[in-house]
Amino acid sequence: MTQRLSLLLAVLPVLAIGGMACGDSNPLDSLSISQGVFGLTTYADDVCTGKCDTGPMSMTFSLLALPGETDVGSVTSTREGFYEVALEPGRYRICTTFERCTEFVVEEGQLVRLDYEFSVGPGWSAPPR
Predict the structure, then answer these.
(1) Cis-peptide into 56, omega within 30 deg
(2) What does the alpha-carbon distance between residue 100 and residue 88 come to, in Å, rounded to a whole number?
(3) 3-state SS string for 34-73
(4) Cβ(11)–Cβ(81) below 8 Å
(5) pLDDT tens digits, residue range 5-41?
(6) Are the C-beta atoms of 80 and 55 separated by less than 8 Å?
(7) What is the DSSP secondary structure assignment for residue 98, as one 8-state letter?
(8) Predicted structure pTM score
(9) What are the φ and ψ backbone dihedral angles of 94, each rounded to 5 degrees?
(10) Which of 2, 30, 66, 99 has the most CB atoms within 10 Å of its CB?
């Protein structure tokens, strides 16, 4: 088993420390990793006549190491929409179960934030920290 996979398997259970209320989510409050990827998953009701409903959504993502697309596992966000995965430095691709993917790089000691909004919009975003 590779060091990267061993590290990933050790941290795959997603830990949500404390609760996050809808609209008050700050993923930095729930972080338990110091290097890897984290974010929030939400939905937006795009069939509405006024202000559209939004909220947290649990989703599962697959992670691939690049190049070569080596499978390094998967992660499921909590019902509050928080997920995190500790990763070794390198290039990765993260994908929804319906193949909406984005690529990212983890540098030594870096946390990468990638949020996903389930809607007709762009899906993945990298909000400022």
Answers:
(1) no
(2) 23
(3) CCEEEEEEEEECCCCCCCCCEEECCCEEEEEEECCCEEEE
(4) no
(5) 333 333 333 333 333 344 455 767 889 999 999 999 9
(6) no
(7) T
(8) 0.74
(9) -115, 135
(10) 30
